[in-house]
Amino acid sequence: MSRAEILDILDGTHPRLGRSVALAMDALVILSALAIAVETVPGLDPSLKRALLGFEIVVVAVFATEYFLRLYAAERRLAYVFSFWGIVDLLAWLPAVLMFVPAFQAIRVLRLIRLLRLIKLFNTAPALNRLLRAFLRVKSELVVWGVISTLLLYVSAVGIYVFENPVQPEVFSSIPAALWWSVVSFTTVGYGDMYPVTSGGRLMTTFMLFIGLGIFAVPAAIVTTALLEAETKLDPRDPEPNETKETNKGD
């Protein structure tokens, strides 16, 4: 079997085996994520723990084998190793190996990076290309929106601190602490752990709630408009996202 055929099978483009291998790998990613979640349940039966450990060993073996096959088949191996997908493929199995070393127990959560592999399902999807085109078209507007939102968050935190700190020093203890109130108010979530009791603070909260409704509607409208224009290609000067490259071939 040639190196090109190996890559076709692993990338899911092989006419006979590609789709089956791709679906099997995606299913393995999802099952391993569920297994990681089950591991955190307290009081698990020892037999179930052993089963989960055995399943993790199988997952590691499969992903490690895939990684080294891709490395073997890559035209430019070093480029693949340092590419985005090369790093994702490596982190799909390496943290699970290191977690057996006591000093590296804390990094076992990195196994969830495997979920990034599911993005490969959309690599060639037209919908993803339209979304990328839309974001590229309005990236300047989104940056401006982000800067304005950040400034408003900070100004509101300063304002609520001035009003509430004298009467609630334990709640609004500092401007950084008041930033949490700003975020909750802007998003109109309202957890209730921080709330104003002064007239000035309540007036500012009312003002920020209305501002928050408008602030978070703006990017949705911007992206929606850009998606419609990307769909119809109203502007031929719109930037086109680069074609998805086979990173494991070193591009």
TrEMBL record:
InterPro entries named among the record's database cross-references: Ion_trans_dom, VG_K_chnl, Volt_channel_dom_sf
Superkingdom field: Bacteria
Subcellular locations according to the entry: Membrane
GO cellular component: voltage-gated potassium channel complex
MF terms in GO: voltage-gated potassium channel activity
Signal sequence segment: none
Topology class, membrane: Multi-pass membrane protein
Principal subcellular localization: membrane
Keywords: Ion channel, Ion transport, Membrane, Potassium, Potassium channel, Potassium transport, Transmembrane, Transmembrane helix, Transport, Voltage-gated channel
Transmembrane segments: 20-41, 53-73, 79-104, 142-163, 175-195, 207-228
GO biological process: action potential
Annotated ranges, domain Ion transport: 27-229
Matching Pfam families: Ion_trans
PANTHER family reported for this sequence: POTASSIUM VOLTAGE-GATED CHANNEL PROTEIN SHAB, VOLTAGE-GATED POTASSIUM CHANNEL
Protein name as catalogued: Ion transporter
